[in-house]
Amino acid sequence: GQSYEIRMLDNRKLGELPEINGKLVKSIFRVVFHDRRLQYTEHQQLEGWRWNRPGDRILDIDIPMSVGIIDPRANPTQLNTVEFLWDPAKRTSVFIQVHCISTEFTLRKHGGEKGVPFRVQIDTFREGPAGDYSEHLHSASCQIKVFK
């Protein structure tokens, strides 16, 4: 439930991608497993989490704290994903909340577990000719561990 800030910055070099000047881009945030062995069973792991915590989400945007995000969305079927539009020319900070802890996906649950590392992955897209945000611009990620 703790909110963590991620600043969205336009890191283009001068004159690079002038076609997105004055336009919005879309960023999709996902919390995924960092370890390769858990990535293979990610779908089953997330379904198990959904079954144990009905109605809860893994990832949310703290909208009142966030600055410069437009049309934030959380798809009800993708508990680990949020998305929003933003203007690269303006100051943009998104505050995310991760609602699962790293030890929820370890086998032994009697305290002292290491906990599994997650990865926050951010994919950014520009608007394509069809008006959808399908043209990939950039991806970034960082490893996180969440404990109470």
Outline the fold blueprint:
Elements: E1 3-8, E2 25-33, H1 36-39, H2 42-52, E3 59-61, E4 69-73, E5 81-86, E6 92-98, E7 118-126, E8 135-144
Antiparallel strand pairs: 1-6, 2-5, 2-7, 3-6, 4-5, 7-8
The overall number of domains is 1
Widest sheet, order of strands? 4-5-2-7-8
Task: List SSEs in N-to-C order.
Answer: EEHHEEEEEE
What is the tally of beta strands?
Answer: 8
Number of helices: 2
Unreliable stretches covering 5 or more consecutive residues = none
| Average pLDDT level | 89
Question: How much helicity do the residues have?
Answer: 10-25%
What does this structure look like?
- The structure is a single chain.
- It contains two helices and eight strands.
- The longest helix is centred in the first third of the chain and has 11 residues, at 42-52.
- The protein has helices at 36-39, 42-52, and strands at 3-8, 25-33, 59-61, 69-73, 81-86, 92-98, 118-126, 135-144.
- With 148 residues, it is mainly beta.
- The protein has one domain (3-8, 23-144).
- The model has no long low-confidence stretch (mean pLDDT 89).
- It is elongated, with a radius of gyration of 17 Å.
- Strand 7 and strand 8 form a beta hairpin.
- A five-stranded antiparallel β-sheet has the order 4-5-2-7-8.
